[in-house]
Amino acid sequence: xxSVSTHETVxxxxxxxxxxxxxxxxxxxxVIVLSVGGDNIHGMTANAFxxxxxxxxxxxxxxxxxxxxHKSIISAQHFGISVLGAEQEHLARHFADKNRxxxxxxxxxxxxxxxxxxxxxxxxxxxAWLECELAEYHDSGDHSxxxxxxxxxxxxxxxxxxxxxxxxxxxxxxxxx
Length: 177
Prior knowledge:
Elements: H1 6-9, H2 17-24, E1 29-30, E2 32-36, E3 42-46, E4 49-53, E5 58-64, H3 68-76, E6 78-83, H4 89-96, E7 112-114, E8 121-123, E9 128-140, E10 143-155, E11 160-165, E12 168-173
Antiparallel strand pairs: 1-11, 2-3, 2-6, 4-5, 5-10, 6-9, 7-8, 9-10, 11-12
């Protein structure tokens, strides 16, 4: 049995923000709309999202300190998550656009419903939805890691998901036999 060093397989690139972004683009992630309801209603596209624990149910999302969503989550103490389907790339692009209107207007023209527990906007047609109460958050670098206690979860019958890979949105279908 032999080992292969990374020096043999990959050329090293000096560590810069752009080289790190390029490297991390090789990791496929799901795409969500992260949302907060209430007086400071807001939505944002994200892919830094993960399950943390099934017992008790917890998830995490990472948000830049400079994002409007950062203050929104801290203020509201809750958030919603809509896991986007392959046909919802337009939603991902809209909620990623820093020039979109803010407040209620950013949701105009989109089909959504307030979550039954947190009142956070949940996008209709998504593959799954979660509502979370903010349990804790930790600053790390230029982002905060928000950990939420899942207080409501549901999913749809949709099978084609939206991924972000290599700097682009990519559809993926589940394989069924």
